[in-house]
Amino acid sequence: MTDASAAALPAPPPARRARISFAWVGIVPFLAFAVLFLIMPTLHIVTGAFRNPAGEFTLVNIANLFQPSIIAAYWISIRISVASAFLGCLIGFMLAWAVVLGGLPGWVRSPLLTFSGVASNFAGVPLAFAFLATFGRLGLVTLILRDWFGINLYGMGFNILSFGGLTLTYLFFQIPLMVLIVTPALDGMRREWREAASILGATSFQYWRMVALPILWPTLLGTFALLFANSFGAVATAYALTGSSLSIVPILLFAQIRGDVLQDPHLGYALAFGMIVITGIANFVYIWLRARSERWVK
Predict the structure, then answer these.
(1) Which of 7, 51, 56, 89 is deepest in the core (most CB within 10 A)?
(2) Three-state DSSP class for 57?
(3) What's the predicted TM-score (pTM) here?
(4) In DSSP terms, which residues pair with 51 in a beta bridge?
(5) What is the pLDDT of residues 156-208, one digit of tens each?
């Protein structure tokens, strides 16, 4: 290459200095919150489940989880979680279908989703008080059914402080959560799929059985797992509603760590560790199935 041709070439651009990105600063509060209130307490619970009061490693706390009373508490909690998750999925899906694909007026969708966003986070003592005031022995609905229609709910065996009563209470936040999750999935159902099925001679039932439900199935199963975990970990609503009359795991855990004569913090850690394992499995199933359903929609 001659000196003239070399001079004709453009000069290389000046090297840019690496700039410090401040984009990560925005997630610092989230990371700090997650570490302080999620990761560190979880690690403390896990390590405490395998230690005795002297701080030594032990498996006694885990072995104590297999006591008949604790196994029964886990079994009741699982039954309540399964029942509320199943009914929440069923009723929530029907509501979402009616709004998205059922031909209801468009103005119904916005109020339903707004209410679902609020009700899905309404739990604890206010929810327990609301259901006691509604379905308690002197609740509004109980008295209306008894005085106006001659229907005695408690005479028929219903009790708000029971398995059925707690399941009914949990449905207040399970159904709205199902509506919020499944509505985008129903929105993602393409019209071309329904038209193609109709052209091939499929009935509405055949379309839902062979096309729609197989596509929505991962979302439905994943949401069921999420609702199960959401119900299994609820403690404030259950304790405020039933007190100690219903022996479920969150109430049993509260009894072990609140400081009375039954106090055994390390057994409480073990109970919490068992809940973490169960809810962790449910959430893993939800995330995995959710990813599969999103691939289908794309």
Answers:
(1) 89
(2) strand
(3) 0.82
(4) 57
(5) 888 888 888 889 999 999 999 999 999 988 988 888 888 888 888 888 888 88
- Among positive and negative, which fits the CA dihedral 20, 26, 30, 36? positive
Confirm if 124 and 183 have CB atoms less than 8 A apart.
Answer: no
Q: Residue 231: which residues within 8 A CB-CB, separation 6 or more?
A: 80, 81, 84, 85, 170, 174
> Which of 231, 255, 227, 233 has its CA nearest to residue 243?
255
Report the candidate in 268, 296, 294, 298 with the shortest Cα–Cα distance to residue 45: 268
pLDDT of residue 165: 87
CA distance 263 to 258: 7
The 3-class secondary structure across 217-242, one letter per residue, is HHHHHHHHHHHHHHHHCCCHHHHHHH
Low-confidence ranges of the chain (pLDDT < 70): 1-21, 258-263, 293-298
Q: What is the pLDDT of residues 2-34, one digit of tens each?
A: 555 555 556 666 656 656 667 778 788 888 988
C-alpha angle with apex 247: 242 to 253, nearest 5 degrees? 100
Q: How far is CA 156 from CA 84, 142, 152, in A?
A: 21, 12, 6
